[in-house]
Amino acid sequence: MSIDSRDPRAARSRAALYAAAVRLVSGRGSASVPVTDLAEVAGVSRQLVYLHFADRDGLLVAAALDLARRELLPARESGRAAVLATARHFAAHRAFYRALLTGPCAFALTTALGELLAPVNRHAVRALFGDRVPAGTVDDLAVFLTGGAGAVINAWLLGAEETLDPEDLADRLGRILHTLGGPSEEDA
Predict the structure, then answer these.
(1) What are all long-range contacts of 8-11, with beta carbons under 8 Å and residues at least 24 apart?
(2) CA distance 126 to 13
(3) Which residues are CB-neighbours of 49 under 8 A, at least 6 positions away?
(4) I want to staple 183 with a disulfide (CB 3.0 to 4.6 A). Which of 44, 79, 112, 187 is the partner?
(5) Does any domain span residue 187?
(6) Are 164 and 155 within 8 A, CB to CB?
(7) What's the CA gap between 73 and 67, in Å, rounded?
(8) Could you tell me the CATH number of the domain that includes residue 27?
(9) 90, 167: one domain
C-alpha cells in the first residue's frame, strides 16, 4: 500500500510524526527513540510510521528537513541577517540536531541538509563572486560553502559550551566569507 502525498490525512500524520520526533529526540538527547514511542506520541500506529518512512532514521532525517524547510527556507533575510537567523535556528534546536549528529543518521542528515541548503547558497556565491566565476563552478562553490559552513555549525553544536552564542557564530561565518573575497562584514 502506498501513501498519497496529497492526502490531507497523510500530511497530518507526517506533521504529527515530525513534531513527535523533534520533541522526543530533544527531550531525551538521543536519536535512539523507539518507533513505538514516536508513533504513540504522534497518535498513529507503528505500521503507519513504516508506510511513510523506511525506518526510524528516515523519519528523524525527514523531521530535521521539515524543521529546516519551515524555519530556514522561508527567511527573507540576506547577508549577516540570514547567517544569524541560521545560527539562531540551530541554537534553538541544539538538543535535536546534536542527538542526530551523534547518532546513526548523522551522515544521512548532513547529506540531506547539504542538498537542501546548497541551492540557497548559489545566490550567495553569485553575490560574492558575480560574473568572475564560470557557471559550472557556481554550483561547486555553493556545495563547498554549504559543506564548510555545515562543518563549522556541526562543531559549534557538538562543542562543550553549555550555551551557544548565535551572534558569535554569525561573526565567525562572516569572517570566513570575507576572507574568501566576499563583502566586508559591515556590508553583509
Answers:
(1) 10/52
(2) 39
(3) 17, 35, 38, 39, 42, 56, 59
(4) 187
(5) no
(6) no
(7) 10
(8) 1.10.10
(9) yes
**What is the dihedral sign for C-alpha 63, 68, 70, 71?**
positive
Residues 69-83 pLDDT 10s:
999 888 777 788 888
- State mean pLDDT over 134-153: 92
Spatial separation of the C-alpha atoms in residues 6 and 154, rounded to whole Å: 34
- Based on its alpha-carbon atoms, the radius of gyration of the chain, rounded to whole angstroms, reads 18
In one-letter notation, the amino acid at residue 61 is: V
pLDDT in tens, 149-164: 999 999 999 998 889 9
Domain that holds residue 28: 8-56
**Which among 77, 94, 78 has a CA at the least distance from the CA of 158?**
94
Amino acid (one-letter) located at 100: L
Contact (Cβ atoms closer than 8 angstroms) between residue 19 and residue 42: yes
- Reduced to 3 states (helix: H, G, I; strand: E, B; else coil), residue 1 is coil
